[in-house]
Structure formats: C-alpha cells, structure tokens
Amino acid sequence: MTTSVSNEEVSVAVAEPASPLAARTSQERSVYRIKHTLASRFAFLVICVAIVMSALAYGTVHYWALALFNLGGLTILGLWVVDSWRLGEFRVSRNLLQLPLIAALVLGVVQLLPLRDAAGGALNTFSLDPNSTKLVIVQLATLLVYFAATLVFIDTPHRLHLLVRTIMIFGFFLAIFGLTQSFTSPTKVYWVRELNQSTAFGPFINRHHFAGYMELTISLPLGLLLAGSIDKEKRLLYLFIAGLMGVALVMTTSRGGIISLVAEIVFLVIVTAIWRSHGEHKRISRVKRVGTRVALAAALIVGLFAGVILLGGEFSLNRFIDSVNTDDPTTGRAHFWSVTLDMIRANPILGTGLGAYGVIYTRYDTRNGLFRLEQAHNDYLQVFSDAGVVGGALALMFVIVLFYRGFDRANSRDDFRRGVALGALGGCFAVLVHSFFDFTLHTTSNALLFLILAALATLNGRVEDAPRRRRRRSSTENQT
Q1: C-alpha angle 401/405/406, rounded to 5°?
Q2: Does the pLDDT value for residue 269 go beyond 50?
Q3: pTM, rounded to two decimals
C-alpha cells in the first residue's frame, strides 16, 4: 500500500505524464473520475450523521454523547483504513488548516509531561488540571479526525452538494424545532428535561450555543444567495430558509448571536460584491452589484425582524435594547475577563492547561473565591489562559490560513463552489465575532460544524464542476 497526498487539485496518486497535454488529461481524469469504495460512502454518511446527531444530543456536552461522538470518529478511522486497502493507497490532504490542530494536540501532550519541582520532590505537570487536559486532547483528536476525513472524502461536486444540502435542511428543521419548543415549553428541553441554571433553546442546554449553531447553518444559504449561485426560481426558497433560521436566532435573545448575525450579513455583502461571478458581464458595474447585495441583505433583515415581531418576539428585541442601559452591560463578563487576564499573566507561555479553566478560576477570583466559572465567556482570552502564547499563535495561524485559502477558493469558475466558499467563511466569521462574548466553540456540535465549514471553504478543486468544454472532452475520453 502506498501513501498519496492530495495537492492543490488532485487527491489520488497518478503517474507523471510524459507531456503537458498528457498531464492536463491525467489531471482531468483524477478530478472527474474518482473511484468511491463502499467504505468511502459510509465514511461520508458518518460525517453527515455526526453533524445532525451531535446537535440533537444536547450539543454533545455530556459524557455519554461525547462517547458516541468519539465512537463515530473511530468508525471513520476504520472505514478510512478499509478504503485505503481497497484502493491500494492511503489518501490524506495537504490542507494547512490541519497543522494548527495537530500542534494543539502536541501542546496538550507537552502540558501533561511530568516534571519535578525545584526541590526535586513530587512530580508535577504544566497543566494544573491533568484530567481535564486529557479529556480535551481526546475531544480535539476526534474533531481532527472528522475534519481530516471531510477534506479527503468530500472529493466530488456531487458530495459537496449533498453535504451543503444536509446542513441547510437540518438547520431549517432545527430552527422550526427550536421555535416550536420555545412557544410550547420554553423552560424544558425536548418538552421533558427541566433546566434550573440555564435557558435552553431547541436541543441545546444553552440558548447562546443554539444561536451560534444558527450562525453556522444560515451562512450557506446566505452565501449562495448573495454570491448569485442560485437560479432565480429558487432564490425565494433559499431566502425563506435563511429567514427562518435568522428568526430562530433572534428569538434566543442572545445579544452576541444578534450582533454576530448582523456582522455575518455585512461580511457576506462586502465579499460577494468584491468576488464577481464569472457569469456576470463587465457591463454590470460594481455599484450595481453592491446595490443588489445591499438590497437583498436589507430585505432579509427587515423580514427577519418583522417575523420576530409577528411571532410575538418583542421581548427578544426589548432585552437586547434594555441590556445596553443596565449598570453592567457585560452581565458580569468584565469581572470574568479581568480574572482571566490575571491567570494569563501568571502562566503566559504554555497556559494553565487545556480544559483547566474551571478548576483554576477560583484561585484567582478576587471576590469570594467560591464562584466556579467553567468558561471565560471569551474564547480568545480562554485560549491564552489554557494554552498561553503558544496556543494563541496556533489559533491565529488557523484563522489566517482559513481566510487566505478560503478567499483563494472563492475565485473558482464554479458558481456553486464560490458561493459555498464565501458562505462558509461568513459562518466562520460570525462565530469568531460571537467568540468575543461567549464560548460557543466549546460546544462539540458547534466546533464540529465550524470545522466542517472551514473544510468546505478550503477544499481543493476536486469539488468543482468542470467547465462545459472540459466536461465534454472527458466524456469523449471515457467513451474511447
């Protein structure tokens, strides 16, 4: 068995052709004639099922749900091995977004290294909570498996279309479920489980995390709409799907979610106006393109808030406005952040340990020291707290590579591919904005979908439809 690494356009190893014409023909065949084994099909199915089930299982925040999630990751690894055995080669991707995740795993292992104290006594570790660090390493490794598998097994335009439709359809029905539950049983999850210390929405224990999930799912229909990748007769349908997701988000009363949704729409309006469709003629001025996008975005926002008012969601809007006028608009976050900064100063290089925040917080709390806080309500501060400057550099590297490669893929001649790339970047951008106020990426389902969108934004050219001329040539070659 050989190991084959995907380059910018090809994922399976091919013999080096003898001439440029043969090279072009070989590349076309590798792009449009990819062999799918039964194991590959099941691996793709597991990825789609994981997106759905991780959200329905309370966002996968409980140990039993995490165990099933990890079992899904092991299943993918097994199917990956079978697929490699059937093909005679092991397929991996060169996508640079995998490197920060792998480095984060290495950092977690380093934090667990046993070290003796200055007096040569008992063994200690860099992590101040080794057990939590071990759990985070396992969870991060599983997320890496799903991410790497998406990069490998989403290898045709057909699979790209299926995955995008799965996310949009599931997001649409999840929004309906969340709205229905909020009207009929707002204090319970699945109309059964009563919550005392948090406000649920849909299957999520925390309404802010539901809002974060909607930010990710709404990005794909919005991106396809604003990029002009949808046929005219389907645009109203996509607008309705996006609008319902937006209404569900606003109904959560999550201020961070509402701010992030507006930021997402503005981001997509700007980038889709810049990235002109190859089908648009030069006679269409940039002013007209911007005007069209702005009008569509304005119609969406107006329709969204009109829908909220129509459904009796004035409380959501009033809460958003009234909270600005309170004595502490941050609702305690300012204090949390100041304590987190003290934790960062005390452990600047490697941090306190992945997942150690909840245990360490009480040591630095300047109030009574009895209040336990699991998360910093700011993912950026918590990255520096848990992983130090090293972790912060890895997170920054991930974001830079994501947008650099994503914008590069947005130059595709395939309209659908371009819309998906820009939409996925919009969803990631929204969550990155939301991360200033909450910890939505600490929910496994949200982290998984975030990585799936990152993969969709940076997938190589295998998922792009061939131009008509090349497709006809490939068909002729197949007949001969």
Answers
A1: 110
A2: yes
A3: 0.86
